[in-house]
Amino acid sequence: MNDTLTPPSQTSDRSKTPRATGINWFKYAAPKTFYPVAGWLMRGCGAGAALLTVAGLVIGLLLAPTDFQQGEAYRIIFVHVPAAWMSMVIFVAMAGWSAIGLAFNARLAFMLARALAPTGALMCFLALWTGALWGKPTWGTWWVWDARLTSQLILLFLYLGYLALHAAIDDTRRADRAASVLALVGVVNVPIIYFSVIWWNTLHQGASVSATAAPKMAAIMLTGMLVMAIAFWLYTIAVTMARLRIIINEREAETTWMNKLQEGA
Fold this sequence. Notes:
The chain has 265 residues and is an all-alpha fold. It has one domain (38-264). The chain contains 9 helices and no strands. Helix 4 (107-139) packs antiparallel against helix 5 (147-168) and helix 5 runs antiparallel to helix 7 (189-199).
């Protein structure tokens, strides 16, 4: 009988192995454990965004050649295109975190969605404003009710509506849920923006960069735009993490861990 039994030492070692070698990622779902991670991301991504923004502007404004059709006016793409990309990506991320928050009642997910919204609104406004500056010399007008421009304007209204709805409800939990529903409904506008130039005959040009086709611009132009796009990504992460820490400070102000953190600071 004893020969068929597993020695106690081997059993205990085997049972401890998953805990010893695995990483419990779910622990970062708590504001307390994610708070220092947000600080590290804020500092690292902020530094990266500053460096890449300078590099991207040097490439786009000084090294990239003049476009033979649009002249110097085309250089606005180094801000306009990354801003337009980020305005859509951020809203999709907001909807994703909102869905997680509603499905699992995850406080940090709601906080992340709320922290992303102001930066998304900024990116959307920047895309519309730089698009108007680009449209004047290219189309001869500041604005047309083009399918892409109109759907992008609707996206800005969705961002502002999300922020206004959240601010209008005093109960934080109710505000999170109501704004999250708006984000999930509004996310259907993102594919409309992206595919508008394919579905409808519009003044707005098609995509210059595609995963399924060769780039329609010179390599140096593409490099500058991609560097700026990464810089915008890093900027978004940095300011979102900074805003998230403020939100956590406000919502966790009465907790023991936050009080200890404030006393230690």
